[in-house]
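Handout, section B. The chain below has 234 residues.
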Amino acid sequence: MKHNSGQSRMLVAVDCVIFGFDGQDLKLLLIKQNTGPQKNKWGLMSGWLQPGEDFGEAASRMMYDLTGLEDAYLEQVSAFGAELRQPKENTVAVAYLSLLNINASQLQLNDQYQAQWISLQDLPGLVAGQTRMVDAALERLRYKAAIHPLLFELLPAKFTIPQLQILYEAIYDSIFDKRNFSRKILSTNLLVKQKDKEKLSSKRGAFYYKLNKRRYSATFNAFLHFVADPGNLK
């Protein structure tokens, strides 16, 4: 196809907004820019779309390059006009949301990117245009978590209900009533109670639970309306 001189070419990038949870804080995985006008600034894992590659394939490629994971959760969020990324070129950036368990043994961060997990409460200034992507991805995460139990992607294989509540409170930046939260969680029948307890947080301890993966797959909407009006909790 011939290039029309009356139209401008467009560069296409893919950016990965990678959330992680360490048991206490919701964090974002950022990399240090080492070249160009944004050198030494923090930013999202991003790269250019390659010939013959679709957006999802590009996001998966970059996630594997950064984390060593081949099956990380990925969901397309939106497209953004990142005008300042390449001042001399028109650019469109397609953002993907990803969820990772920070303490997973399979997670192996690539040293070349100088990647760090940074709490959402302490985010530095990001590469131009990427703050909008993070805000959009967090909003998507809040709405998805109110409908589907996808937050288990951020947790270890076994966890306590208090740990799960801490995660929900970090996602929504709100406090949930303990009894009501526990009742709603257990009513989904997605959790399998374990015999052992986590005793570091209290003398009495809290029982560990595991996700019933078979039921999780069969009834993915079990948390429907678990969080009412997720955009207006305060």
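Note. The mean pLDDT is 85. Compare this with the example in section A.
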